[in-house]
Amino acid sequence: MKRDFGNWCVERSPFGNNAQYWLRLWLILISSVSGVLALSPTGAQATDVKDYSSPSTDIRQSEIEKPATTVDEWLTQIAQTSVVQVTGVQANPTDKGVEVILQTTQGEQLQISDRSSGNNFIADIPNAQLRLSNGDAFTFRSQNPIEGINEITVTNLDANTIRVTIAGETRLPTVELFDSNEGLIFGLTPAVTAMQPPQQSTTPQETPAAQQDQPIEILVTGEQDTGYYVPDASTATRTNTPLRDIPQSIQVIPEQVIEDRNATELRDALETLGGIGSSGTRGTGANGETFKIRGFDVYNDGYLRDGIPYFSLGTLDTNDIERVEVLKGPASVIFGAVEPGGVINLVSKQPLFEPFYSASVTIGSFDTYRGAIDLSGPLNESRTVRYRLNTSYENYGSFRDFVNGERFSITPTLTWDISPNTSLNVYGQFITERETIDEGLPETSNGVVNIPRSRFLNEPFSEFRQDQFNVGYTLNHRFSEDWSVRHALQYLQYQPVREGPTFGFASGLNESTGELARLADYADGTYRRFFTNAEVIGNFSTGSVQHRLLFGTEYRYRNENPRFAFPDSDNYPSINVFNPIYTRTRFEPNFNIFRDDNISVVSVYLQDQVELLPNLKLLAGVRYDNFTQFRTQEFFPDPREEFEQTDSAWTPRFGIVYQPIEPISLYASYSRSFAPSFAGSRNADGSPFEPQTGQQFEVGLKADLSNQLSLTLAAFDLRRQNLSTPDPDNPAFSLQTGEQTSRGIELNLDGEILPGWNMTASYSYLDAFVSEDNTTPVGNRLPDVPENQFSLWTTYEIQNGDFEGLGLGLGLFYVGERQRDLDNTYTLPSYFRTDAALFYRRDNWRAQLNIENLFDIEYFRSGNYSFAGGGVNPGRPFAVSGTFSIEF
Length: 888
What we know:
Blueprint (H helix, E strand, L loop, with lengths): L1 H10 L6 H16 L23 E2 L3 H4 L5 H11 L2 E10 L4 E7 L8 E5 L2 E7 L1 E3 L8 E5 L5 E10 L2 E8 L5 E6 L4 E6 L26 E6 L10 E2 L7 E2 L7 E5 H7 L4 H4 L6 E4 L10 E4 L2 E3 L4 E3 L2 E2 L11 E8 L3 H4 L6 E7 L7 E9 L3 E11 L6 E12 L8 E15 L2 E15 L6 E2 L2 E2 L14 E16 L4 E20 L12 E10 L2 E16 L2 E16 L2 E3 L6 E5 L16 E21 L2 E20 L5 E18 L5 E12 L16 E15 L2 E19 L2 E25 L2 E16 L15 E10 L8 E10 L2 E2 L7 E2 L2 E12 L2 E8 L7 E4 L8 E3 L4 E9 L1
Parallel strand pairs: 2-6, 3-12, 19-22
Antiparallel strand pairs: 1-4, 2-3, 4-5, 5-9, 7-8, 8-9, 10-11, 11-12, 13-14, 15-21, 16-17, 17-18, 19-20, 21-22, 23-24, 23-53, 24-25, 25-26, 26-27, 27-30, 28-29, 30-31, 31-32, 31-33, 32-35, 32-36, 33-34, 34-37, 35-37, 37-38, 38-39, 39-40, 40-41, 41-42, 42-43, 43-44, 44-45, 45-46, 46-49, 47-48, ...
């Protein structure tokens, strides 16, 4: 039965007959809004400063009650009465207390009426609606932000009103409302005793700490550009959680860093993070470009897009990405079967509430040309239907002979607020790309062969090409202020083709003659992935203990049917590395290896974020996965073999966060991971291998040094276990006795140091080694993992004067020496690279110049496959790119 089901899935998508249904739904949603015109309301400015500590005060009503006498006044009244969308809420510590920011593109249009009820100050914002952009909640809550205030909540009162509630501990807080150049501010002063008003004449030094004024600011502004500082993320918990409340290391690359570095590919963007490296080149490896986190590879489901498994054998582009979140350490409790190093989550750009149109053009060294368009805005007057469209095209060359490529991508996204409590996000993506296969420079047991770094040793016709698309939706519904449900579904398909001779799997290099053996290599196939889950998120309390519960169930299905023309013997002409002569002869693929893999996973997971005290928080979670594989493989002319394997695992995570003072978090955590073995691998007795497992202990410190600057320090012990090692008594088989360990320290600094001066810096020390093995010496370092790694990227933009908008950027990247393979055959040398940038921002346009490898050093960026002819990738020499972008 399982074999029949697998073959059926090869012929059809995993949706079965429902595939046409979901396609029709997508087309109906697009067509239903395509003819609606978008409006762009004009904002109204507030000018008065008043005291609103008394109840029932209606703010600025006089400004809109007068009848309009001109067209301008009429347009202003329309804007004032339109529903304003608040897309995010932040709670940031200040030297005065807590600053709560309501993010909206037109904050100056908000009106406020307030009243009191007991110890509660209540402010209603009419003609406004809370639509948190992360989509996981419709309510913002801050428990015990400072002494004297029990809770701050921001929620939807009804379809057109937002309610802000500030609950005092002993009495109603005193409230002062005034305007600033940033927006509206509530100044709230909690009283410590019911009889004593705040002391107005004493200084903080003269007043006891418990009686000092501690104002809370609620700031209503436009969309906040966080720059290099990101206060919260969703990857670690699947809920939008402040980074300082997460007992595990998570690093974020915000959009501003990606833009300032002109990092158009994921591998370039990740250079600013410590403890992360890349191996493999685009389109050449069996698993695409591979990254290492804390010394271990990231495979398959370790790549995510908006928290959903996402993978490609080609290049991972940043054109439609808002930011990149990297969770370090085992993450199986949330994301299932992943490697223990961590996961990489690409957070996509979402539809905006205000019209936004942007275009950019880049011209760079080695005949590189790139254009990108970003369009977004509402499709109806009430802005309940919004869209975003990102598209880009790149045609590029290389410093490597004959190497070039092109790539086109388009990503449409549609968000529909069906009701105040229900929202649907539908998206799609299509990518087509082509690139020359380049395996880099050959190597011997003594190191990389000494030839020019531009020398290319495949064939000019060697090519990787791929078409890929995915389509899906996320549905959010809120039952109440505290309970909501989220449902996601996605279908992903990619069809890669690899054609051309390769030396990566050939017999190697003849050092005396310089002849490099090559194989005729051709591979293609269709890869399909289906994902769906349903999650319930709830906030509740047990006595004084606050809980945020996440319960989810998940189903994944993967079907792959690749085929390979990969001969057993050298059948393509060799090439001389010192005097290459290219045959330019294509070959007819003779397919001799076939696979048909069907993998399904059913999962259930539970997580609880517990607040025992305002400064003591726990995170606990557990997940159960049932993993079924049905694989067939054929090595022609041998008969086809079938393998069936079922694995299951429980993976827990525990963590604790203690905050001795508001901006400081001390944490400790334990987490586990698992990854099933390939079903075709067997023990000598024919039994399947046990899943590989991982476990990590981590302790650390997170500190908000200011409102826009954070520091993270982490120390960890991470182990990967149940690794296959050769059986000393039967070398044809393996034993699962291997273990690899990675211990280290990571330090990260991110944010704004001074106005206009931004920085992201990281340092990592990794001691990654073989801790148990039958053949490899214990203590050998893991391949392609530097012991020391450092990066710094910093920019400064002049804030005022004649040169306002002019900025400079500097990047420093150090990677220590790395062992090339597990046997530690030879060492790749360390390198120190310098990048730079010059940009000028004026009104709605920006001109930018980026320089990579300013001093033109020669270095090796990464290696392919493993030693024995795998090839090493040289780093790019001095390169310049110029970008011009404009917004409308």
